[in-house]
Amino acid sequence: MHAAIIRRPTDRKTPHVTTPRLVAFDLDDTLAPSKSPLDPEMAELLVRLLGVVEVCVISGGQIAQFEMQVIDNLQGASDAALERLHLMPTCGTQYYRYTDDAWTQIYAQNLTDDEKTRALEVVERVARRLGYWETKTWGPILEDRGSQITFSALGQSAPVAEKTAWDPTGEKKNTLREAAQAELPDLEVRSGGSTSVDITRQGIDKAYGMKKLAEMTGIPLDDMLFVGDRLDPDGNDYPVKALGVECFAVEGWHDTAAYLEKLIPELQAAAAAS
Per-domain residue ranges for the chain? Predict the structure, then answer.
């Protein structure tokens, strides 16, 4: 493949790249609205895509979110199609594959009890000091995801409109991230979703996950394509772009759907010609 090409959603042209062997996606605001199930249109497109290439979903969320948002909505997907789907919760610190009619965890790189305790204490204390510890929330603010501690300012189930209004510029989230990182130098603190901050071991981000994916599948990064909504320098998809993986930028699942409507026929034609 050529060097990474980033196109804005207003440019509806499909990037002119070598046919990818694997297409990877962010989840929230790329395949589905934040913490919401796939739209039936997107689910159908994913099933079609699985018919021609390997597909990965990589996100900061835990496997339960992947199940609710993605797996439970892939109606009509054959076992052969599901076997081409790679699930990487918590930015690739966990990896799941479909084998023997079930989703199986291939690995999990969990935090130690000490790392979890310190991360939970620091992020709550810093959030309270900054005035970001909200009283009106939807679900837990703090989550232990095994390989990742996640702070969600309004809770995991907050409505999209509430999240957007809470931190429209990302300033709160970035301030919280920087303050927590200063107190957790041995861990990695990074921006997650629109109102969340994730804490993992050092060096853990989506670039880490993509490199693990290449290692596990044997598919080189140069043969992968990544689609995400936060490819800006402050976004949690940016490490994939910085890694040199071919990328396509979207601003929501409708952009992704429009892109796949063009990409899938191209992949099908390439497969037929090979």
Answer: 22-109+204-273, 113-200
Model confidence band, residue 76 (pLDDT cutoffs 50, 70, 90)? confident
Residue 28 pairs in a beta bridge with 32
Q: Which residues are annotated as a binding site for Mg(2+)?
A: 26, 28, 229
Tens of pLDDT, residue by residue over 10-59, are: 333 444 456 899 999 999 999 999 889 999 999 999 999 999 999 999 99
User: pTM of the prediction?
Assistant: 0.82
pLDDT of residue 224: 97
Q: Average pLDDT for residues 73-84, to the nearest whole number?
A: 94
Residues making up the annotated binding site are 26, 28, 145, 196, 198, 229
Which residues sit in the known binding site for alpha-D-mannose 1-phosphate? 145, 196, 198
Domain 113-200 in CATH 3.30.1240.20? The answer is yes
Q: Which fold has domain 22-109+204-273?
A: Rossmann fold (3.40.50)
| Alpha-carbon gap, residue 179 to 122, rounded angstroms | 9
* Distant-in-sequence contacts of 99-103, Cβ < 8 A, 24+ apart: 103/63, 103/67, 103/71
Catalytic annotation, residues? 26, 28
